[in-house]
Each structure stands twice: as C-alpha cells, then as structure tokens.
Amino acid sequence: MTMTATQTKALVTPPKAPGAAKAPVIVDVARKFGVSPVRQLKEMVLLSRGTSRLATHEYYSAGLYDPALSMDEKRAYVGVNGSYDLNVFMSPTNLTGARFFVQDKVVYTALLNELGFRATRTQAVAQADRLFGNIPSLATPQEIRSFLQNTAEYPVFAKPARGTGSFGSALLSGVDGDQLVLGNGRTVDLDAFCTEILQDYPDGFLFQSALVQHSDLTDVAGPAIGTIRVVTVRDSVMPRMLYSLWKIPSPKAMSDNFWQDGSMIASITEDGRLGRCRIGTGLNARLIDEHPVSGVKFADVRVPFFDQIPDIASRAHALFPDFGVIGWDIAITPEGPTIIEANDNPFHALYQLAFGRGIRNPDFMPVFENTAAISQKMYARKKELFEARKSQKKQKA
User: Fold this and answer.
1) Rounded Cα distance, 76 and 232, in Å
2) What is the pLDDT of residues 270-315, one digit of tens each?
3) Strand, coil or helix: 76
4) From the CB of residue 286, how many other CB atoms can be counted at a distance below 10 Å?
5) Homologous superfamily of 94-104+214-367 in CATH?
6) Count of CB atoms situated within 10 Å of the CB of 113
7) Which residues contact 307 (CB under 8 A, 6 or more apart)?
8) 242, 251 in Cβ contact below 8 A?
9) Cβ pair 45, 75 in contact under 8 A
C-alpha cells in the first residue's frame, strides 16, 4: 500500500497490550547474555513486587536481563504501575484536587495562553455534551465535516481531549473533495473520519493549530513535531526541572510516540545538548550516534531555546503547587518553546530508556522523598485550616 492510498481509519491506534514473554525471547536472552531461564524467571518475580512493579514485558523491554546490571540497579527501574506509585507518592491524590483540570487539554492550554505562556491553540472541539466558551463545539458528524471543509485553518493536529501517548492523533493537511488528506500523504474518507471521532472519543476530540518545528530540529529528524519531555518537581519553594529528553519521531510518523516502530528517544544534558540516543526496546534496542535518515550526529545537536525551558516549565508548574511532579511536552518552534500539554502522571520509563538507568536511582530518590515530605506538610496544613474553619462555624452556630 502506498502513502497516498485511501484507508478508512485515520487515527493512530495504540499497540496491542503486550503479553507474557514468549519462549523464543527467553531462549534468545539465555543464549546472548548467558542468563538461564530460571534466573530470568526469578528476577521477573522479584521485580514484579516492591517499588518496581514491573510486568513481564517491561522486564524485557527495559533490558533488565543484562547481567552487567546489579540487582540494586535493576530494582531502581519501574514499570507503568511503579511509575504511577512514584508520582502519587509525590503528588498525593488527597492534595491534588485540581488533577481533573490539569488533565483537561482544552481548558488548561486556554489558561496557559491567557496567563502569557506560549501554548497550543484549539480551533474546535468535537463533543456532543459540552461547550467551551468561544471555542466551537461540534456535536454531530455533519458539524465536524463543515468545520473541516469550511473553517479549519490547516495544518491541524487532531487528538483526543483525554489520554496520553498520542493515541488517536493525526496531522491533517486539508480536504480534497470527500477525502481528508493526512500529514503523511494518506487520504481517508471524510465522512468515516467524522463518524469515527464521535464514536471512538465521546469524551472530546480536539482540533488544534499544528505547530511548525524549529529548523534546527527539522534538519535532524524531519518536520513531524518531536516534543521535549520535561519533568519538574516541587522539592523546595519553587518547582524546578529534574530531567529532560527528546522524543524523536519515526521517519514515517506524524507524532512522537516511542512505541511506534522506528521512533527514537534521546537524553538531554543540563546544557541542552543531546546525549545518548536509543532506538527500539529489549533485544531490538540499540544506541545510535546519528539519525538514520538525515545522518546528523546527535552529539552535534543542541536544543534551540533550551535556556528558556527550565524557567517556562517551572513557572507553569507553579500555577499548581499542590502537585509534587508534572511532566511537560514542549515543542520547539521558531518563536520559542510552546507547551503542548501537562501530564500529572508522567511515564518515567521514558527517562529509563533515554538515560539507561532506573528512575529510583540514588541521585533522584532524595529529591522524591523531599518532594513527598513537602506534600505531606502541605496536606497537613490544609487539613488543619479546614478543621479550624469547621470549628469556627460550630462556635458561631
């Protein structure tokens, strides 16, 4: 099938949930790394418990079968569940009542724009049971079609109002008759696309103005936006940047999901230069020194405007100081860094893949513990104030 072939499904669909490791993988690890199946099983059981909470497939995708890693180094890794536990440790749910608001991609980015941050602009929202002020709400497939044919300012980046990982996203280039033209050259039936959105994403679907990536990054990886993932923590009075990495899109992708075949992920040093870059996971993972298409050496790349990123992310985090940790997806445009969205539950496996070490490492754990301690003090103070006000009301009554 060519890139211009017509397909009925437009949106990026998530991969199937990985199952338990299959026998060939276990055998390959035993042969290539000298780790017996029994030892693999023992390590998987140990790492499925405690703070790691690694699933079987996460043990292999992270390459934790490697005998060069000590057991303490392996225990520093977390899976999806362990990553969530770590985030809740720093941002307790009883303290972060604004979690629903931060997850609202329409309202949150509108707030950022209003307060002077550079953020994405929503042109319209497809949702049948909600309004968004002056932002058009599209309640029927006919209204979506009319918007795409007559009102949309292309290119448009389309994505669900809720969710992570760019699942359900697509870059739209325009309409050609009854066909919707995607950013990768494919076309899909326009009416089918409009119906697909309301059926598959009833909680809302956004049409945002697509951003243009800074030429320095486009020269490396192509025009698809590869966002900078920045994680900030509140371990003192003001939040600060803990780490950053570059999610490099696959040469054929419209977004920067590491789970898409051919996508890459690169660590970023404190001065904004690219560090090690990884492509693939598990036995298919390898470190690369240059982009496979452009040939640009990663060591020669410095992220444009990087000196602005820590301040922008920290000030945006400070809007919601109750959160101990927030992950930011930031695009680098010719005008400067632009916030795409905030993640109240950042997936720390990205850090582990990019930097080659567990997130619960000796350098970070004191930071996490201090952040959690501050959160507990904040909650205790709020509880104390609540009880005091409650007591005052009883006295007046």
Assistant:
1) 19
2) 999 999 999 988 888 999 999 999 999 999 999 999 999 999 999 9
3) coil
4) 9
5) ATP-grasp fold, B domain (3.30.470.20)
6) 15
7) 272
8) no
9) no
pLDDT at 7 over 80: no
Ranges of beta strands (E only) in 100-254 are 122-126, 137-138, 156-160, 170-176, 179-182, 187-189, 205-209, 228-233, 240-248
User: What pLDDT is stored for residue 161 in this prediction?
Assistant: 86
Sign, CA dihedral 326-161-136-122, equals: positive
CA distances from 225 to 30, 81, 173 (A): 39, 28, 14
CA-based max dimension of the chain: 77
DSSP symbol at 396: H
Tokens standing for residue 80: 């999806």
Tokens of 373: 């301690």
Domain boundaries, the chain: 23-89, 94-104+214-367, 121-209
Q: What CA–CA distance (Å, rounded) separates 62 from 41?
A: 15
E strand map for 56-169: 122-126, 137-138, 156-160
Q: In the structure encoding, which two tokens stand for residue 66, read together?
A: 């490697």
Measuring CA to CA, which residue among 48, 47, 22, 26 is closest to residue 37? 26
Task: Kindly give, in sequence order, each residue whose CB lies less than 8 Å from that of residue 120, ignoring residues fewer than 6 positions away.
Answer: 109, 157, 208, 209, 211, 338, 339, 340, 341
